[in-house]
Amino acid sequence: MKSFFRELLLTLILAFVIFFLLQTTVQTFVVVGSSMEPNLYEEERLVISKVVYHLHEPERGDVIVFRPPNGRKTEYIKRIIALPGETVEIKSGAVYINGSKLNEPYIKEVPRYSLREREIPEDEYFVLGDNRNNSNDSHNDWTVPHQNITGKAWLSIWPPNKWGVVANYSLQEQLAGLMNN
Q1: Of the listed 2, 3, 73, 78, which one is catalytic?
Q2: Is the dihedral of CA 158, 162, 165, 167 positive or negative?
Q3: Which of 150, 175, 164, 96 has its CA nearest to residue 128?
Q4: Cis peptide before 68, with omega less than 30 degrees from 0?
Q5: Pairwise CA distance, residues 168 & 164, whole Å
Q6: 98, 86 in Cβ contact below 8 A?
């Protein structure tokens, strides 16, 4: 009987440790709205890595979940376009980072708006939705402070036909497309 209670206690402790590790490293997120179409859709469920940005800094092309700086309670999901200290400009349907035009195979359609060149403040990120013309994002004159980032979108887990790794694009991939055109 004593060994039964010992095993039960060890099982409960192990379950608590696993639960705690999962809670501190990943979370689920439900996509709200159409701002990330054609890559992520309304009601799609994702697994977010909360630990990745403790290992390295966020990178351009990462799809992130964050608390918006406007004080809203609902978290947003967008793609990082410009990093701290870089300049960003949107003109003639294209995004320019430090004067270089990005190749963006992930967007729904080119933006129908312009943004004058601006420098991104230190420790902040410029983010845009993939559905550029239907997204409340940094083109509306706000950026995301590093401390507001919850994590990086990692896996799509629902619906079943969307299972897989969330597409993130590095700067090299975005610039490589320009060299091949």
Answers
A1: 78
A2: negative
A3: 96
A4: no
A5: 12
A6: yes
- Say if CB 166 and CB 155 are below 8 A apart: yes
Burial class (CB in 10 A: 0-12, 13-18, 19+), 16: exposed
At 139-170, the pLDDT tens digits run: 999 999 999 999 999 999 998 888 888 877 66
- Please state the pTM of the whole predicted model: 0.83
Q: How far is CA 14 from CA 6, 50, 59, 105, in A?
A: 12, 21, 35, 45
Structural tokens at position 24: 């501190």
Token look-up 């004080």 returns 71
**Residue 181 pLDDT > 50:** no
β-pairing verdict for 100-101 and 94-97 = antiparallel
Active site residue 50: no
Token pair listed for 5: 């209670």
Helix (H, G, I), strand (E, B) or coil at 149: strand
Report how far residue 86's alpha carbon sits from residue 82's, in angstroms, rounded to the nearest whole number: 6
82: which strand partners? 126
The confidence score (pLDDT) of residue 178 equals 43
Query: What residue type is assigned to position 111 of the chain?
Result: P
For the question of residue 114 being annotated catalytic, the response is: no
CA 89 to chain centre: 20
> Which residue type does 59 have?
E
What is the dotted CATH code of the domain comprising 27-179?
2.10.109.10
